Amino acid sequence: MTSIKRAAGSAFPAIDLPVLGGGRRSLATARDGFDWMLTIVYRGKHCPLCTAYLKELNGALADLTALGVDVLAVSADSQARASAHMADVAPEFDVAYGLTVAQMQELGLYISGPGNGTDVEGPFAEPGLFVINDAGTLQIVDISNVPFARPELARIVKGIGFLKGRTGDAPINGTHA
């Protein structure tokens, strides 16, 4: 499957998905009380490295909240699989589910088929990390084709703190034409 990579500095797509516990969330819109958004795409229940990363995210949540950053994790898993997976993670952040192949492509993610994992329901997204600023613009983007090449969350927290601490608008890296 091919995807067009999402460009830093572009508007982030307002994909709306159901979340565990009820309701729906946009992958691009922070909840009231927050001005930036961190959207983490994880592979799904079948991925033990994703489980560890989401548990790390729990540990970084207080620092992200203090910076005014809302957090949402999302996968292609069904509601039942996402619920079973989150019983192990015990997330303190919202978890969306049901990401479609078309939505994965819109986000610019690498997509793998059932042969790339055991105990999967169908095609799934490889990891992605998106930081959307208060203007709805993609400030930071990191996508990978494997679960073991992800940015360290502690560095992401420090980087967001640095960017938000700048006076005026923080420049978006990687946008020189």
TrEMBL record:
Transmembrane segments: none annotated. InterPro entries: AhpC/TSA, Thioredoxin-like_sf, Thioredoxin_domain. PROSITE patterns: THIOREDOXIN_2. One of its GO terms (molecular function) is peroxidase activity. It holds the Pfam family AhpC-TSA. The keyword Metal-binding does not apply. This is Thioredoxin peroxidase. It comes from Rhodobium orientis. The lineage of its organism: Bacteria, Pseudomonadati, Pseudomonadota, Alphaproteobacteria, Hyphomicrobiales.
